[in-house]
Design a protein that fits this description.
The complex is a heterotrimer of chains A (about 475), B (about 130) and C (about 450). By secondary structure, chain A is α/β, with parallel strands linked by helices. Chain A is built from 15 helices and twelve strands. In chain A, the strands form three sheets. In chain A, strands 1-7-6-5-4-2-3 form a seven-stranded mixed beta sheet, sandwiched between helices. The longest helix of chain A has about 35 residues. Chain B has a single domain, classed as RNA polymerase II/Efflux pump adaptor protein, barrel-sandwich hybrid domain (OB fold (Dihydrolipoamide Acetyltransferase, E2P)), CATH 2.40.50. The longest helix of chain B has 11 residues. Chain B is globular. The chains are: A alpha/beta (about 475), B alpha+beta (about 130), C alpha/beta (about 450).
Chain lengths: ~475, ~130, ~450
């Protein structure tokens, strides 16, 4: 049933002379009184872009869309991604004129509605995190991490302290050390402890007056709440360092506890995880940060400021701002979707979301623990990590094989081979927007797969359009672009 | 070349010594860990390195590893065929897949490197 | 209203399976003293209807639907054909995840491969990645990449005609890293190649230039690139994404890395984000590129397919030695641009560029006929130009705004003191959307404002 012609590459479908008229003829006369562009700057030939009639464009992309799994079509238990439902009401609201068509340089008096909403978003994110200084500026979580580290660096410099080291556990998401390196810090990784938690002895041994920040995810990337987090914070603060909370796992603790209350000094949110920003097949996201008030003067610009006396919203620059990490205000389109979500749920709704996310994860754990190793016990927060190590030893079937076989059963695979501290790791995060039926069907599929003939599983997936792309050859001889000489 | 006659760095480079020339490659153990190698970047002839400095990179689909200088020296030759025949690393890691040759500043630095048996023990303890 | 599913019976079933009495038992993992003992202090939940009504009240007016937009400075009010919104609002695209599992993501992967190819065709450059956040970070990432390529970390030269926000982003990124950022002063709105030659040296990593530049003027990119190469530095070009429809492409100037703000190609303004960072370079540098790359390969059965490629460079593998910290990029916006370019094709892009240019000339002609109003720099421009008026720019902009017309940005907001009379200057940008009538209305309105 697959439409072979429509799923060719655009360039293979191209035929000279095809296309669609989208623009009218020019309605302005030629002007002779101004300097003209010299021939040295003018293009001499038409761009080699493909020429395709509009009905073919539509058919092409509609067919491509059918080759995807998505939250709208499948259960997507990707640990650390929070693949929850993307409410359609947000899409309609995001198209409202002031939201969709405002130019960033429009005068403030024309965007008071938008600025008031962004101001409220700042306030709400401060309340949810327990950290008062909020910046909506970073484009994604990784940029949020980077921005917060620069903010901390500016704070230390302002105090005349030369702090060069950023610490993080081995279970940290790769963006943590990458962001720290980008910010010019020395990265110090703490080895994993046996029980999955931050190793306090190791942490202590690495703390000194060079320590700037300890970056930790809480709940951590194993899905466990770091019980000693307050102690960790005390240890950092006692040497004058700061604690950064990677907020990727906020979906476990909304309304239950807050990074500012358990010792965090800075954090980032992933609006495209916790607050239903659509994943868009790899973005866009938004990574707002929240910091303690003594760090707020260093936040990037602009921040939305409200003058209650004049009932007026304006953009302001914090007193000792680090500057800008990207152009314009921030990923407003995504921030708005997060705002609509928080307004739809309210405080009670957010708490219920977390409670059900944690309930669903623990239920799923209870259904798989008899055939999959769950190295860190029977309880988790909103996600848990299982291991296929034993299965691999007995049958040769790996986590990757199981992940691929799940596709045949109509489920997207969980996160695989992360965190690095668990061998043959599989991280499951069902989220709260899934039913008991879905969880049961998923657990049943997993159970079945784990007792299927190994060869069947190793050769999976069998029912998808393609099976096991050759990544080795692709990396040896990258083909990143179609060219006319290809056939 | 047989690994028994070679010396090893803890970072998995092997060294064969001939006078003041050190021929360097990566061990079979390291290659196995990386699985399919997809890319190798070699330094230029004439470049000098101190012990522990990164000389180049070896890349698989899943990881990128640095190749560290086990001793101090100047690059006098690189194995120009290797980047186009990366499977040699799997087939002949101690022989045809030599990576480069250094003229050592101080050949006694080799004494600080591990012998094969010691290296094997080091690998075993690293995986547990 | 948290989009929840389960009935009390089903909830009980789950609690029983886990072996607990109450959901609160799952939260004992959080020490009591850290637990929040109150509800979050947020506005009470609203229904879909209420939210719709409230948002229509607060966001239902405004943007370009209310004021005629002549605003420029990196993002522009261009037309987006309906097909783009239709396709990209399909849930299979916008609710899909990053294509780590290739077999479940061939739609996304093929679309991104097409995107990479289209951008390569647009720019003439060998290879494009699958997007960065936006134009500003793309410039910074290009500089980091140049450092990885030639090993020089001391000094980076950039044109004083670069977008001031791009400059600010560079300053923020490099503030802690000990890199000296050297600004090339402009001469009458463009960079004099001799000043460039005198500034670049053996320590310079790269030269960053913009075409057209922030003032809308055209630079001698070919000469500047040659000078950069003679100094052993890389040439980084930030180009206007629409310009290849009329002007030379980045590759025609022999630049090493070409980046752009891709918003004009199918992304709505959205008050400045999310946008699209276009990033391209020479083939020989591909392993040093930041961001995702999609590659074509074959599967186990020999079938053509697509997958993420060269991931070993990215943060999830390389961690602190990664080419960038970027994880989530701008996937959906790259898709918008893919559909956009597929729909309008090469002739459409040429029209877009030509119309923008012709209308800019017409506007400049009418506006400079107003007494006291002049083109700040008497240089050829593409689609945007810097105007100087007798009155302060902030006043003019506010007055025009009240008449339903937006022009700008001005130079005051950036404190661009490197332009003589900067307090009286502002940009005027044109796109294919601006009609003759709108341009003439602008001219009449501006005449009123400056002569009263």
């Amino acid at each position: 049933m697959r439409n072979q012609i429509a799923t060719q590459l655009l360039f293979e479908m191209s035929k000279a002379g095809r296309g669609t008229i989208v623009f009218p003829e020019s309605d302005v006369p030629d002007v002779t009184s101004l300097p003209t562009i010299s021939a040295a700057h003018l293009a001499t030939e038409m761009l080699p872009l493909p020429e395709i009639a509009e009905p073919d464009v539509v058919r092409h992309f509609v067919n491509l869309s059918t080759l995807n799994m998505s939250v709208d079509s499948h259960f997507y238990p990707l640990g650390s991604c929070t693949m929850k439902y993307n409410p359609k009401r947000h899409e309609r609201l995001a198209r409202l004129p002031q939201a969709a068509t405002s130019h960033p340089y429009q005068p403030e008096n024309q965007v008071q509605g938008l600025l008031s909403i962004l101001f409220e978003m700042q306030t709400m994110l401060a309340e949810i995190s327990g950290l008062p200084g909020v910046s909506l500026h970073p484009a994604a979580g990784a940029q949020g991490e980077f921005t917060a580290l620069l903010t901390a660096a500016a704070y230390f410099k302002d105090r005349g302290e030369n702090r060069t080291r950023v610490l993080f556990p081995a279970s940290a998401h790769g963006t943590n050390p990458a962001s720290a390196a980008l910010a010019g810090f020395e990265c110090v990784q703490l080895a994993a402890s046996k029980n999955g938690f931050v190793d306090l002895e190791q942490l202590k041994s690495q703390l000194d007056d060079r320590t700037a920040v300890f970056m930790v995810t809480n709940p951590n990337t194993l899905g466990l709440f770091e019980r000693e987090i307050a102690k960790v914070a005390d240890m950092l603060h006692s040497v004058g360092g700061l604690v950064y909370i990677d907020g990727a796992n906020m979906n476990a603790i909304l309304g239950k506890t807050r990074p500012g209350d358990f010792g965090g000094d800075m954090m980032h949110y992933n609006v495209h995880k916790t607050f239903t920003g659509p994943h868009g097949a790899g973005g866009p996201g938004a990574g707002p940060i929240a910091v303690r008030d003594f760090l707020a003067p260093f936040l990037p610009a602009p921040i939305v400021h409200y003058d209650a006396g004049k009932d007026w919203y304006s953009l302001s620059t914090p007193a000792k701002s680090i500057g800008q990490v990207r152009t314009f205000f921030g990923n407003v389109g995504i921030l708005l979707r997060g705002y609509f979500y928080i307004r739809t749920l309210g405080g009670k709704g957010l708490r219920e979301a977390s409670e059900n996310a944690v309930l669903n994860a623990n239920y799923l754990l209870s259904q798989v623990k008899d055939f999959l190793d769950v190295p860190h016990g029977d309880r988790c927060m909103h996600e848990f990590v299982a291991s296929a190590r034993r299965i691999k030893e007995q049958t040769g079937v790996t986590t990757m094989d199981i992940a691929k076989r799940l596709l045949d059963y109509g489920f997207h695979a969980p996160t695989v081979y992360f965190p690095l501290v668990v061998e043959e790791a599989m991280m499951f995060e069902p989220t709260e927007t899934e039913s008991l039926q879905t969880l049961d069907a998923f657990a049943t599929a997993l159970r079945t797969i784990c007792s299927e003939p190994p060869d069947l599983v190793k050769a999976a997936p069998h029912t998808t359009a393609v099976c096991r792309p050759d990544e080795v050859n692709a990396a040896r001889k990258p083909v990143l672009c179609w060219s006319a000489t290809e056939c | 070349m047989k690994p028994d006659n070679l010396r090893f760095a803890k970072t998995h480079e092997w060294v064969a010594v001939d006078g003041d020339i050190a021929t360097i490659g990566v061990s079979e153990f390291a290659v196995k860990l990386l699985t399919d190698i997809v890319y190798l970047s070699l330094p230029a002839v004439g470049k000098r390195f101190s012990p522990g400095e990164s000389m180049g990179e070896i890349e698989s689909v899943k990881a990128v590893s640095e190749i560290y200088a086990p001793v101090q020296g100047e690059v006098i030759a690189i194995n120009e065929q290797l980047p186009d025949s990366l499977t040699l690393l799997n087939d002949s890691p101690y022989d045809k897949a030599w990576i480069l040759k250094l003229r050592m500043t101080d050949s006694s630095q080799v004494d600080g490197l591990l012998r094969y048996a010691e290296y094997q023990k080091h690998c075993e303890s690293a995986t547990h | 209203m948290a989009y929840l599913f389960d009935t009390p019976e089903q909830r009980q079933q789950m609690l029983d399976a886990i072996g607990i009495q109450h959901v609160d038992d799952l939260f004992t993992q959080i020490p009591t003293e850290l637990q929040l003992k109150r509800e979050l202090n947020l506005p009470p939940a609203v229904s879909e209807l209420e939210l719709q009504q409230e948002m229509e009240r607060r966001l239902g007016q405004g943007g370009t639907s209310q004021k005629t937009c002549f605003l420029g400075g990196g993002v522009y009010d261009h037309f987006i054909p309906a097909v783009v919104d239709e396709i990209t609002s399909r849930g299979e695209f916008y609710t899909a995840y990053t294509p780590y599992q290739a077999e479940a993501s061939q739609g996304t992967l093929q679309a991104f491969y097409e995107y990479q190819t289209l951008i390569s065709q647009l720019t003439g450059m060998d290879v494009s990645n699958a997007s960065l956040y936006e134009g500003g970070t793309a410039v910074s990432e290009a500089v980091f990449m140049a450092m990885r390529i030639n090993g020089r970390h001391q000094k980076v030269a950039f044109a004083g005609t670069l977008h001031p926000e791009y400059k600010r982003v560079l300053e923020t990124y490099f503030a802690r890293l000990g890199t000296q950022l050297v600004e090339l002063p402009h001469s009458n709105g463009i960079i004099d190649p001799e000043i460039c030659r005198a500034t670049l040296d053996a320590e310079t990593t790269a030269l960053v230039i913009q075409q057209p530049n922030f003032f809308g003027c055209l630079e001698d990119v070919a000469a500047l690139t040659t000078i950069a190469h003679e100094a052993g530095a890389l040439s980084i070009l930030a180009f206007d994404a629409v310009s290849p429809g009329l002007l030379k492409k980045p590759a025609d100037y022999d630049v090493d890395i070409a980046v752009a703000e891709g918003q004009p190609l199918g992304t709505p303004l959205q008050y400045g984000g999310p946008l699209l960072g276009i990033f391209t370079c020479r083939n020989e540098y591909v392993r040093k590129m930041p961001g995702r790359l999609i590659g074509k390969t074959t599967d186990r059965k020999g079938k053509d397919c697509f997958a993420l490629n060269l991931q070993a460079r990215e943060q999830h593998i390389r961690r602190d030695k990664a080419t960038s910290n970027i994880c989530t990029n701008q996937g959906l916006l790259a898709l918008r641009t893919t559909v956009f370019l597929a729909t309008i094709g090469p002739r459409g892009l040429k029209q877009m560029a030509t119309l923008s240019h012709q209308k800019a000339r017409y506007a400049a002609d009418l506006l400079t006929k107003i007494p006291g109003v002049r083109l700040k720099f008497p240089q050829p421009f593409f689609r945007e130009f810097l105007l100087q008026t007798p009155k302060p720019a902030t006043e003019v902009i506010a007055a025009l705004g009240d008449k339903g017309i937006n022009v700008g940005p001005d130079l005051v907001r950036f404190k661009m003191t490197n332009v003589d009379g900067w307090q009286n200057c502002f940009l005027v940008a044109l796109t294919e959307k601006r009609t003759r009538a709108e341009i003439e209305t602008l001219a009449e309105a501006l005449k009123e404002v400056v002569t009263c």
